């Protein structure tokens, strides 16, 4: 396993991290015992950065981690939690208030059975009513959480990298990390335009969703995926080409993301041990000659002109759903 400095936090995190979304029903049926075994296997293979949050199964991810970490020395891993995004119902999906933020941290710690988090992140501040809520309410609440010893550092996790940069520029509260997802991929590598800025400001960079949340896999994305039909079709064509060459597109996508500079850890979701081992092998051994050839061909044939893939899609959908929920309640 490779280990990298996470900004100025002093944490040396594994180049591969373990994500919490896999321990919910977001990417398929969640089996708690299988999840517990995967977490423990990951720790044995050198993964020391774990991530979870209430959004992932409305607590099932946190509960799974809590059971898996029983009896594990606390100084052998780092764990990050999230606040801000909670329930499936649009009316209660997001809450960035100070009161909810502090209560959510307590709830996460209770489910995990831990006294503190190494990192607490604001989950999708894009969906806050206004950036002033994040700056004047959420971040000060998290600062109180840190001062109370319930977390060590504060981070931001969002799809909008420009927004994360804006928050860091304007915040009076120290932000130690950013998590960008699906923007260090074969189809969208915009994160590389920002890593130097973050690193020069002492902000550690975390990447997630190397496969674009399932776009770059042989099985394809889940029905809820926000990408357009055109993007999904293009990724499906690339996947079919890979199959014709007896190559798994997800391996190529994982290798691409793991090879990008400036990123401290890459959050991966594992459904089973085979996915875990395959990711570890890709990091350690790289690609075969055939896979390297196919990677170049796929990038040239399918992704040479790929630009933004689902920018400005989720926020309008959420606002529409929120309006409908308000109309129904009245």
UniProtKB/TrEMBL annotation:
Residues annotated as domain NADP-dependent oxidoreductase: 16-286
CDD domains given in the database record: AKR_galDH
Source species, domain of life: Eukaryota
Any GO MF annotation of the entry: L-galactose dehydrogenase activity
GO cellular component terms, A-Z: cytosol
InterPro entries in UniProt: AKR, LGALDH-like, NAD(P)_OxRdtase_dom_sf, NADP_OxRdtase_dom
Pfam families membership: Aldo_ket_red
Protein name: (diamondback moth) hypothetical protein
Annotated source species: Plutella xylostella
Phylogenetic placement of the source organism: Eukaryota, Metazoa, Ecdysozoa, Arthropoda, Hexapoda
């Amino acid at each position: 396993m490779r280990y990298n400095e996470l900004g100025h936090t002093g944490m040396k995190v594994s180049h591969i991290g373990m994500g919490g979304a896999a321990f919910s029903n977001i990417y398929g049926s969640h089996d708690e015992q299988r999840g517990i075994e995967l977490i423990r296997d990951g720790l044995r293979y050198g993964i020391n950065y774990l991530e979870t949050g209430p959004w992932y199964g409305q607590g099932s991810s946190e509960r799974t981690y809590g059971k898996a970490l029983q009896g594990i020395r606390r100084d052998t891993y780092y764990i990050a939690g999230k606040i801000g995004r909670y329930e499936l119902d649009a009316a209660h999906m997001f809450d960035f208030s100070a009161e909810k933020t502090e209560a959510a941290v307590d709830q996460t710690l209770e489910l995990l059975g831990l006294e503190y988090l190494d990192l607490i992140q604001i989950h999708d501040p894009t969906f806050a009513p206004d950036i002033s809520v994040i700056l004047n309410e959420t971040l000060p609440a998290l600062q109180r959480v840190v001062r109370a010893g319930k977390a060590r550092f504060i981070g931001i996790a969002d799809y909008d990298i420009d927004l994360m940069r804006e928050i860091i520029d304007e915040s009076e509260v120290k932000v130690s990390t950013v998590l960008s997802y699906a923007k260090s991929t074969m189809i969208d590598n915009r994160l590389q335009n920002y890593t130097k800025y973050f690193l020069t400001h002492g902000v550690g960079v975390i990447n997630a969703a190397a496969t674009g949340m399932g776009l770059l896999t042989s099985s394809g994305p889940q029905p809820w995926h926000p990408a357009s039909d055109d993007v999904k079709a293009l990724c499906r064509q690339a996947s079919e080409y890979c199959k014709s060459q007896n190559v798994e597109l997800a391996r190529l996508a994982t290798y691409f993301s793991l090879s990008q500079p400036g990123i401290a850890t890459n959050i991966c979701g594992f459904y089973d041990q085979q996915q875990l081992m395959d990711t570890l092998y890709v990091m350690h051994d790289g690609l075969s000659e055939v896979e390297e050839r196919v990677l170049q061909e796929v990038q040239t044939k399918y992704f040479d002109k790929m630009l933004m893939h689902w920018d400005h899609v989720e926020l309008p959908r959420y606002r529409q759903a929120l309006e409908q929920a308000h109309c129904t309640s009245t």
